[in-house]
Specification:
The protein is 21% helix and 34% strand. It contains 6 helices and 16 strands. The protein has helices at 9-15, 17-25, 79-90, 166-173, 226-235, 254-266; strands spanning 5-6, 32-34, 41-43, 49-55, 60-66, 73-76, 105-107, 111-114, 126-138, 141-150, 176-177, 192-196, 199-205, 213-223, 237-242, 271-279. The longest helix has 13 residues, at 254-266. It is globular.
Length: 280
């Protein structure tokens, strides 16, 4: 039976016309499936369904999601992440190496821009971005939120100066400064938050070749709470806050996280952007 599948040009280019045509004809695609963005059932014979191809160094995984949850696309992810998602899908691991669900969670991430040289050693260090997930009340609506904070000062790529340029670099990417945490910021074009098998995997930014690339990427998938995932599914978007090192800290509860956000905003140290939700 033909399927109501959306196969983007990028996905078709990766899997080939023959395989794409088989999918559309229903020869190699599921009828019913669990949308791996919102985790609710879908039926490709009854409703528009997106094909999403996740590509690692050696592995590729074709997944399905409601077209209303995310568009058909190709997403490049780390091989370890993709293998973890495969283990989770096939039942080899309960949470693909994920973290236990708590109200607010923090997970270390991949290295980003080099920080200023350490004064004692005189050698460049690598800063990483930590992410905390939680629900934040904005304009009487509970939003799924991510709070990004590096482990050290972020220098502009190619420089060795000691000044932290994290907020400036975010501003150049389109993040907005927040003086108060009251309303959701504008949507940042080309950026998205990636859920895979109901877990947080990456924050994606536009890539030079047209396909999204990871701006932040978890070493291990972060298992968000049911409440966070439900809010993300309902709204289809996530608010991403960002602040310099030492501003927010690791907050174990959402009320403490909100207090830290309010203080950062009052001190002019908080940037934010709203991003569409993507998934596997």
């Amino acid at each position: 039976m033909p399927r109501m599948l959306d196969v983007s040009d990028d996905v078709r280019a990766e899997i080939g016309d023959e395989e794409a045509d088989r999918l559309l004809a229903g020869d190699n695609s599921p009828g019913s499936y669990d949308c791996t963005s919102c985790r609710t059932p879908g039926d490709s014979a009854q409703e528009r369904t997106s094909t999403v191809l996740f590509i690692g160094d050696e592995t590729a995984v074709l997944a399905f999601a409601h077209a209303t949850c995310l568009p058909s696309q190709v997403v490049k992810v780390a091989e370890e992440q993709l293998q973890g998602a495969v283990r989770s899908i096939t039942g080899e691991s309960d949470a693909a190496g994920g973290f236990p669900a708590t109200a607010a969670q923090t997970v270390p991430a991949a290295p980003v821009a080099p920080v200023a040289p350490a004064a004692a050693e005189g050698q460049p260090q690598a800063a990483v971005l930590g992410i905390t997930s939680g629900l934040v009340l904005l304009a009487d609506e509970l939003y799924p939120a991510l709070v990004v904070e590096p482990t050290g000062p972020i220098a502009r790529p190619g420089t060795t100066g000691g000044e932290d340029q994290f907020l400036t670099l975010l501003s150049e990417q389109g993040f907005q400064p927040l003086g108060q945490v009251q309303e959701a910021p504008a949507v940042l074009p080309g950026w998205s938050v990636l859920l895979a098998v109901g877990q947080l995997h990456a924050v994606l930014q536009p890539g030079s070749g047209g396909s999204p690339v990871a701006w932040w990427q978890a070493h291990q998938p972060l298992q968000v709470t049911d409440g966070w995932r439900t809010a993300a599914s309902k709204l289809g978007k996530v608010v991403v806050f960002a602040a310099p090192v030492g501003t927010i800290g690791r907050q174990p509860r959402e009320d403490l996280l909100r207090d830290a956000l309010d203080k950062a905003a009052a001190n002019g140290l908080l940037m934010a952007a709203t991003m569409p939700l993507a998934g596997t």
